């Protein structure tokens, strides 16, 4: 252990014995945090030691933590970040912990199919695994109304397919390794949000490292014909063409025999150079990887560099799967779940047998994260009095708006359309209020072409005061709010 680590531990031990009277601390801290120091004269100071700096930082964290405890996490959050929808959300402050990560819902509000949620992720292990751009949306789902599940086939109790959300990172606190988010959630009308509001997360991405044209440490000197395995059409999982792929997949009679030729530039064991060889006068490079891994290397992209540094793209590539016995899967008889390894085989055109001066390079990324189970149930007060709904059939440019709901978070519409194409997503939507017209942003929606029905949603940038709303304006058509 370094001297700095020893000193730091001593400081931690001393601070742990300190008791703080927080009854008067909050106001003092708040006033000092905003105290103007611009007029303070500059003075010559001695250089601070690392131990002194550590003590100051730790003291600040202690004071900040005490302030948050006095104010309450919700009050502290609203005062600290002043979020767009802070005036309409309720304090929640409930959390779920797994894999050393805490997911906390700080505040929220729900209006039928829409919800605004303020939440945080924190690494409580001290490993600082979360990064500033950690993506929260991946592995996130919302519970739908159980009654809606009976009428909509193929919809899970928790689903993301019938819900949309806009994720916004408010702040990343490096000291506590905490990320604060704003989530604006909109569910489809046929699968409204459940009561109480329930959120679940099963994946948390930490970071992603990108590789661009990274050299692969293999020599192409003396590369010759390699051992191959027969490949039939039903064994192809997918393919990509650079313009030189034959139309008949059955013409691909051979692929390289899977193996382990070399490591990839990132050095991860779940992706490797499986084999390299010449087949029918073309250079084949096969990349193997563990199939269906959530984190780790992305699907690779390869290029070949000639002696002058020019990049040569593959003519085409194809993918096939292997099972636990390393036998190739027949996709007419086997399920994708039977796949253990996936092989990406790249085929390069070559005009020379001497490849000693040619180099292979790799482009891709490697992600890190953790699987777990985080679930939070949020009880919120009834907000129906803050919504307006009407069912008048209103015709706008060949679209019939049959069901309209307006809430402080935005507008939702269900209707039908004429013609071959639904154009509701391209319409301009605004809300006329006593203070002027507030434009809305399209969130998304869905349509059923066979029935010519649609649903669509638009959000506000800030809470909409329903009591001030006078009309909705759709493509210039004014719809009064009664």
What this model shows, in words?
- With 482 residues, the protein is mostly beta strands.
- It has 3 domains: 73-210 and 372-378, Sandwich (Immunoglobulin-like), CATH 2.60.40; 221-240 and 249-357, no CATH class; 387-480, Immunoglobulin-like (Sandwich), CATH 2.60.40.
- The chain contains 5 helices and 30 strands.
- The strands form 6 sheets. Strands 4, 5, 8, 15, 16, 17 and 20 form a 7-stranded antiparallel beta sheet that branches. A 6-stranded antiparallel beta sheet has the order 10-18-19-14-13-12, with no helix packed on it.
- The model is unreliable at 1-71 and 148-161 (pLDDT under 50).
- Keywords: Membrane, Transmembrane, Transmembrane helix.
- This is DUF4179 domain-containing protein.
- The chain crosses the membrane at residues 53-74.
């Amino acid at each position: 252990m370094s001297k700095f680590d020893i000193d730091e531990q001593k400081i931690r031990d001393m601070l742990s014995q300190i008791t703080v009277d927080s009854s008067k601390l909050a106001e003092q801290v708040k006033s000092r945090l905003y105290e103007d120091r611009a007029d303070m004269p500059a003075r010559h100071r001695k250089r601070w030691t690392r131990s002194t700096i550590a003590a100051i930082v730790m003291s600040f964290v202690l004071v900040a933590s005490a302030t948050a405890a006095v104010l309450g996490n919700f009050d502290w959050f609203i005062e600290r970040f002043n979020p767009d929808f802070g005036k309409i959300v309720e304090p929640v402050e409930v959390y779920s912990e797994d894999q050393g990560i805490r997911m906390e819902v700080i505040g929220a509000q729900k209006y039928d199919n829409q919800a605004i949620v303020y939440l945080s992720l924190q690494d409580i292990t001290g490993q600082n695994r979360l990064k500033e751009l950690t993506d929260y949306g991946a592995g996130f789902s919302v519970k739908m109304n159980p009654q809606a599940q009976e009428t909509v086939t193929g919809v899970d109790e928790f689903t993301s397919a019938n819900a949309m959300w806009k994720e916004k990172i408010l702040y990343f606190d490096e000291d506590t390794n905490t990320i604060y988010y704003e989530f604006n959630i909109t569910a489809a009308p046929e699968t409204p949000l459940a009561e109480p509001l329930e959120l679940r997360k099963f994946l948390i991405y930490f970071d992603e490292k990108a590789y661009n044209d990274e050299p692969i440490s293999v020599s192409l000197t003396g590369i010759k014909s390699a051992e191959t395995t027969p490949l039939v059409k039903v064994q192809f999982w997918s393919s990509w063409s650079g313009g030189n792929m034959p139309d008949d997949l059955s013409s691909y009679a051979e692929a390289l025999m899977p193996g382990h030729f070399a490591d990839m530039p990132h050095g991860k064991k779940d992706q490797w150079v499986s084999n390299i060889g010449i087949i029918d006068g073309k250079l084949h490079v096969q990349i193997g990887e563990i199939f269906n891994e959530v984190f780790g290397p992305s699907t690779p992209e390869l290029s070949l560099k000639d002696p002058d540094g020019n990049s040569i793209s593959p003519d085409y590539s194809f993918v096939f799967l292997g099972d636990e016995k390393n036998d190739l899967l027949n996709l007419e008889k086997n399920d994708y779940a039977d796949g253990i390894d996936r092989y990406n085989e790249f085929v390069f055109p070559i005009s020379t047998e001497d490849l000693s001066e040619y180099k292979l390079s790799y482009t891709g990324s490697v992600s890190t994260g953790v699987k777990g189970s985080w679930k939070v149930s949020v009880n919120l007060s009834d907000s129906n009095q803050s919504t307006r709904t009407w069912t008048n059939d209103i015709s706008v440019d060949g679209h019939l708006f049959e069901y309209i709901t307006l809430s402080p978070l935005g507008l939702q519409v269900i209707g039908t359309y004429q013609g071959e194409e639904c154009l509701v997503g391209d319409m301009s939507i605004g809300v006329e209020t006593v203070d002027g017209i507030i434009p809305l942003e399209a969130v998304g929606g869905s349509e059923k072409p066979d029935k010519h029905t649609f649903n669509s949603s638009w959000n506000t940038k800030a809470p909409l005061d329903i009591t001030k709303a006078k009309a909705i304006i759709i493509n210039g058509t004014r719809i009064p709010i009664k």
